[in-house]
Batch of 4 targets.
Target 1
Amino acid sequence: MKRTVRTAAVLSAAALVMAGCAGGGDDVQPSGRATAEDGAVVVVVGASPVPHAEILQFVQDELAADAGIELQIREFTDYVLPNTALAEGELDANYFQHLPYFEAQVEEQGFDFDHFEGVHIEPYGLYSESVDAVQDIPAGGTIGITNDPGNQARALDLLVEAELITLADTEGDATLLDIEDNPKDLQFVETAPEQLVVSLQDVDAAVINGNFALEAGLNPAEDAIVLESGDDNPYANFLAVRSEDKENEAIVTLDELLHSDEVKAFIEERWPAGEVLPAF
């Protein structure tokens, strides 16, 4: 049986929607309007705590000073506020999302955003506290799934890979309404992505985002009963910016550091089982 998620980690995942994390002082303004005491240009970046903020902290600790920038890292535990904060000018960039989610948000919210290339992939996983294999999921069982349209299609694709369902052909992203065959008569429980770990004990299995699984003490490479492949994976996470800042020198420098050999080595050493994969 897969291990029960630690209570402390669950509480952490359900904690305040936004928490501050520092690479410097608290009085921060977006880049180009603030410099550190040593003259470095301050770049304010919003990020999910794991692995994004960890990767950014490595950049801040090991690479940023020599590149003439200083990172101010602000952690967010949901997928809504980082884009809102970026649009409102509270951040210079954010690092938490993949292209399908980014495109959905830009279309729905009208954000004037751009983005750089992918930095890392967090494989999606199907987790359970009650069964050890997909075939053990009972008939009529319940499956937790994100209510986020930008990720629900990804979750459904994983369930297709697990041979639990099939999907009808659709022009856009698949939703629960596009399930064609459901031989086990599975029942789907939609919830906010950050709450899926919390509700894992109440369902037979749940498809959970890699960052929330890691925050809760789950190891995707070891604990998932089905894990998304990293090969040709379109869900690499990247640095997003306001369109006007796509060529901002300090932000371009940060993106270059995120694609450095040092960051690639850090990801591979920090998550050696493939829980997080470099995308470059």
Target 2
Amino acid sequence: MPRKDSPRERGPRHIRLLEYMLDSEAWQSLDPVARALYIEITRRYRGPNSNNGKIPYSVREAATALNVSRNTAARAFHHLVERGFIVAKKRSGFNVKGRTSTEWLLTEFPDDTLASVNTATKTFMSWTPAPPVRSPTRETQNSFNSPTGETHSPMREPVVAPRRDHVAR
């Protein structure tokens, strides 16, 4: 009889995307590349008390896996961080002995790098979109279309003649 913790007993590896996360404003605001990147990072998570907070994934790896440019992959990482789905625990770097990828923490799960018992932060659940920037309306502008109400050009300073009574030192 197989042990309870054996792979055969647990079934095949899988990734769960829970309904509360998919319904969150943060998830709804993600583009398809960022959603696919989240799934790719989650594929490297090995379960409770394993490697959350130590999940290596670089922009180059993401670009290759998602078949997008490095700029698009970097933008997807930025969106995931900004909305609270992932946190960089250890930044990447180059040195004489080699390269290391950034190590990520999935906020959906508890941090495995901490010795004490902790809970998942699920930061993405409290994310709200920034209010749109409103441009000045006609009522807030004066007849010269200046949003500040001033009529002189802010780029020009009044011309001041140099004084000849000062000696350069």
Target 3
Amino acid sequence: MKKIIPYLIIIRPINCLIAALSVWVGAMMTWLEPQILSPLLTSIATFFVCASGNIVNDIVDIPIDRISRPDRILIQKRMSTASAYLFSIILNLTALGIAAFVRLDVFIAALTAVGLLYLYNYKAKQIPIVGNLIIALLAGMVFITGGLAIGRTLAFTLPGPLVGALFAFLFHLVREVVKDAEDVEGDLQAGIKTLPIMFGVRFSIVVAMILFLILTLCTYVPILKGWYSESYKILTVYIVDLPLLGFLILVWGNPTKKMLSVGSFLLKIGMAIGITALIISK
């Protein structure tokens, strides 16, 4: 059991579960009647792609994590880099095999996600904003991929998966900016240029607030269009949008590492609640 635990920790299973659940939501927002097999297989493939990306991220980030994340598995030498590489390759190959079994559209989406994650980890994360945009794009893609598991046409019909994809894109973009502000010390040591390093932490939090305000306005569109039930409004506006926007203002006033860490965590919770809002409003 002790040998298995590092493999579970390094994939960051909660993040992967959120991605897998997002696939189900994308499928639910598409299907005319409930379907099980295709969304299930697609969500499993998505979990594996996400897990592999997290592993590669930890491998690439070893110099940064020695400063910012000393509790990471590879830093503590609870797993060798070679074992981590092999594990990530196995996960990707398994994911692509499953995706190919579902349908061609899902395979193309999975292959694109794998490519984008490698591009992010080995190149784009060192380019200000570009890396953040890739992660946000991948977050939105999982909803579309869920829709593709059902059918291509319905996947791009409003108010289907495109709604969840837009919300996920903006939500993750906000969180990426906040995480960069949290990791400034490690990124400086590693020579990585991020938005907070180039323009300052407070400026970055202002950018995050503006993006989150745009997200908040977007969440009102389904309310005005009458697409979803009242429960959607309660969860998104009163439990997610307003509290998180208020907390971001507090972070801007006191941008300590602890406050930024709490902000990043609360944004992750907000994502989960947002997904729940889309599920129960279906």
Target 4
Amino acid sequence: MINREKILEILKQYHFDSDKYMVISGAAMVLYGIKEFTNDIDIAVTREYYDYLLEKYDCKFDCYDSNGNKCYYIDNFINFGLKYYSNNKDYIEKIPVQNIFEILKLKKELNREKDIIDIEKINKYMLINNLKIE
């Protein structure tokens, strides 16, 4: 399990270009303080950065996303793909992070058992922080 400090430590080691990636899903929730741990660090990247990461690192195939694009792992910690990248992001300690509303949208789209639990946590976080669904 990876906590907030470990996520920040790992990402800072890679020196990723903050204009070309963003932390998404469970790892983003950990960075926001919505949950304590995650199993991996999911990031979404631009097409250009996707190709760059494949060339730079020894990437291992993970799965196909719902658009048919391949997702890969870097060093068994960082899972990357194209599908959820957008410019609608926040920054936490200089790390680009998926906007909370986008995380909620992603979790609703995936709708797995663990996502339903995460949706409840996000809704509670939004209520406490007086955030309204867009």
